[in-house]
Task: structure prediction
Amino acid sequence: MNKLMWPIPTGLKDLLPEEAKRKRTLEANLAALFERWGYEEVITPTFEYYETLAMDLGSEAEDELFKFFDREGRLVALRPDMTTPIARLVATRLRNSPMPLRLYYLANVFRYEAPQAGRQREFYQAGVEFIGEPDARADAEVIALAVEALESSGLRDFQISLGQIEVFNGLMEETGLSPEQKKKVKETIARRNLVGLEQLLIEYRVATRQSESILRLPHLHGGTEVFTQARNLTTNVRAQAALDNLERVFELLDGYGQTKRVCVDLGVLRGFDYYTGVVFEGYTADLGFPLCGGGRYDRLLGKFGFDCPATGFALGLERLILSLIKG
Result:
């Protein structure tokens, strides 16, 4: 009776004592790990002005924002992730600090999306942001840290899929498509809708050679052989430079002893528009959606008046806990 009389909104969840304890223990372990790697915690407001949080999100993610007006008539929103708030924080409060900055967070975020296993409309993330270092070594560090975060949490069967968004951008340079058309193609690849991708390229009348290269992109996954296969797709300078960068990151991960956990997957593009380089997602066989994700976003801080490179990742705590229970 009480459940019917006093419901909570769809996509929200109470945590009972055992669940709350499991979550707090996981958070404490991750915080200790991040601090051992030299990262310091920051905390940002749960809601901010809409124009701040909508910065470079992309149309789909922007549509998922929880928005409302404050009493002064300003449009505000609940944070959908932590990367943009931390970019704002660094650009406005920490820009004079010695670089690079290593920051971490434990936070709840909100997205108005269809609730599913391991993901509600309010969910919890743990993550890091490495600010002020453009070199591939920074990308390798955060990926290696993501691997260690999953391993130290008790997860054994998982894999990190590693991509480079500039490979896609380089291929798209040769198509002559409009920015909106390119965005639609990107979203279709990110959703792994290969049938829809082929139909879209036909609709946009992309030349056969470029179309074949784009259709091949989501199928390029594996080990170091992917670099050779991808280089044979195009002579585009932007794409070739991106492959060089990705190969360098992969080599650095070998130095961490982490390549056994990592595969190259050029179909990984991520959903947010702020990504500019290496991107990655972590998967386990038990779940059909990523446990963690991240990448490089060198232009986002510039939107707040502080031109500074950055990379990072976020780990979904509910998804990780669900995978640990299933395992």
User: Anything to note?
Assistant: The chain is about 40% helix and 20% strand.
